[in-house]
Amino acid sequence: MSVTPDLVADPKRAVRAARWAEFKIFTRRFMRNPLGVVGLVIVVLLLFCAAFAPLLATHDPYLPSLTDRLAAPSATYWLGADELGRDIYSRILYGSQLTLLIVGLVIVTSAPIGLIIGAVSGTVGGWVDVIFMRITDVFLAIPKLLLALAFVAALGPGITNAALAITLTAWPPYARLARAEALIVRNSDYVNAVRLAGASEFRIIVFHVIPMCLSSVIVRMTFDMAGIILTAAGLGFIGLGAQPPLPEWGAMISTGRKFIFDQWWVATVPGIAIFTVSLGFNLLGDALRDLLDPHLRQRK
Amino acid sequence: MSAAPKPLRLFIDIGSWLITVAITLIGLAALTFFIGRVLPIDPVLSIVGEKATPEVYQKVYLELGLDKPLWAQFWDYLGKLLRGDFGTSFSTSRPVLTDLLNFFPATLELSTIGLIIGVVLGVPMGVASAYWHEKWPDHLLRVVGLVGYSVPVFWLGLVGLFVFYYLLGWVSGPGQLDVFFVGVVDRITGSILIDSAIAGEWEIFFNAISHMILPALLLGYYSLAYISRMTRSVMLDQLSREYVLTARLKGASEFRAVAGHALRNAAIPLVTVIALSYGGLLEGSVLIETIFSWPGIGNYIYSSLFAADMNAVLGGTLLVGMVFILLNMLSDVLYRALDPRSREFAK
Amino acid sequence: MSALVEIENLRVAFRNDDGGYNDAVRGVSLTLGREKLGIVGESGSGKSLTGRALLGVLPPYARISVDTMAFDGIDLKSASPKLRRSLRGGRMGMILQDPKFSLNPVMTVGKQIVEAIRIGDRRISGSDARKKALGILEAVHIREPERVFSLYPHELSGGMGQRVMIGMMVVREPDLLIADEPTSALDVTVRTQVLSILDELVTRRGMGLIFISHDLNLVSKFCDRVIVMYAGRIVESIEASRLSEATHPYTRGLLSCLPQIDGSLEPLPVLNRDASWAGAA
Fold this sequence. Notes:
Chain B is mostly helical. Chain B has helices at 6-38, 43-48, 54-64, 70-82, 96-131, 136-150, 153-167, 192-199, 202-239, 242-249, 254-292, 297-306, 310-338.
């Protein structure tokens, strides 16, 4: 790869060109992992369904049709109808919006909180580190589902409460991650150079420590999304998530449970949806981790 | 190495570790306290329910000490916990701890069997996956594990019941035993398998197995998915290390190099993985037990939730949390025992 | 007297990201008698891979091809994996660079040596094996062999660990020993000690030794013959005593980089690499 004179003269363009080349290499390597591609396709499909649910649905997800209660899958009801005669296919489509909402809420809150706590803890050290880490350990040692359960039980059911409850237990791994990275970075030579130049600890944390965590954070987030979906489904199954008539997949399984023996589709289909989406995120996370984790680089 | 004498360093080490455990336990109690006392708008109502009489309300109000400042309430709370007072369940009218201890063995039994399946199958799967990295056994086993990792276990239980109980009739349905067997065997350990074996009631024993097999296999699958995944990643790391090459250079067979050397090193982090998996099984019991009507803690918490019995819910959470912390402690101890490098203080 | 080792046209390649192959060793040929041969080269020259190919412990993703590869008359090229395994440890040994990594951290040092002994003799009793292990610890000049026997690798110093490694690999009295950078991880003061032990063992037992290193100076003093490798090829093969008469520009470049105590006080020359030294692809 020859370096053209104009790139040398313009460092910003050089950086952008280098980043683009890296991205192309990354994409090429990613494409060579078939399972990862499958995962990506599933995730994109989820986004697509959520975005275009009104266009893709065949029926109104909330409108009951008592004559068609528990109808079997057919040309009208592609995946059958539930106990109130609502089309399951359409409810699944709209449910994807709820799924995305919960996942989004949790990730958007837990990751930054965890990162900040961990980065500050690792960079500043001393008493702050000890206290933050003790708090993190406490949250890590506690059963996630049960804590979320108790939390929602106290506050009342609903999507935001469920998301909040899950966030409570989702942030510690990010804190651990950020802290580990901070410990490595804070005494490295380039950070010391920046310090000597007068940078504040805040600047160091934001512009140097946190960017170093990025690849681990992305991998972690992807895996977390799968876990969050399962936890949210569990909460929904117990009745603590989105409340009826909202088409939350976990809750759909719960209501379908009564009819499992004769109208199996009511409970089975939402589960397949949950499984597919969770699998998608896990596959994607696996592929990303194989690509981004330097320890695992192996030649074939 | 260090200046302080050996016994003193050992003492300090163990002491600081115990303090850490104590702090974690207090933290757990603080969380349940917060959820039970601070979060609800009216904590008394969440304990006694809407239909309680004014006298009951007053009684509980004073019991909780809600007139006192928060930190004093927490102090009382801790004291009660240490004495074993987890509050009273207003739906069963019994002390919560009594209820919990009643139901815990059934959950323990199921989770333990699930874990054994998970370890016995999961570890070899992970080892095979790592050894044949990127070849077809790896891909196959990874997919099997991935499915177990991605599927909502309670849903799988439901589908399993549908297929194997309703459609095929291979296993018994929900419940720990057939109805007419319940209560026949004396309760000694709380484990139905052990108790029925002791009593020599073999018909009940096999009936229990036919009820247990589906949920146990399910938990086993869930557990092996996680364990095989972690084993694979730990083994991949160990197999790339030089001491494995040294074993081969000595003329060791592949089996000896992998099982005798790599796996022995991998066992150290795997102990923590197994402890975590066990905790995960206990935690997941809430969902599984409702599907299979299993008389364990999970079911107890679930029904307490619907009866809005906060004391019971929080008590269950506390108990499982304590077991979690205990498992962590155990894995710490085992880690020290297995890894000679971590025993520096003992030198 | 047949040569101990005979290699002709060894090629080792690795697949790279684009699907093509990177040749790491390109047509190396050498013979070895019961002498000390040094292989010198920089990182990436392929010297370690040559040793590993001979012992059959290349990573599974490596591709190997060779015209002839024989050890003491045994054809290694067509040998079964089982045969090659039986040769390893018993007749061909290899010591690695850093005992911190090359010894199993959770087994005592004594047990690791006993394991080597046991692989060679399944029927040996526990106490005999232990005695033999203690004997080899003494042979590598470890004082208090009983105490060291029950130590773990992380409790040993670098020099001791390396001596344990040497002992472990020669305890079954192999005919060939390959030493892959055996002193590179050690302090300079410890190096001479380990080298003299190596010399003693090799000479006394009449073993063939292949000494792989990046240190030309060290190798020239220690070995009988020297082979210089660059980019997967052998560029020089010469007796150690006649090293100053080397002809290849790479070797001459390396030699002139070495500071001489009675040399000129001018700055040392920088090695100018010529693409032609890598030869045709």
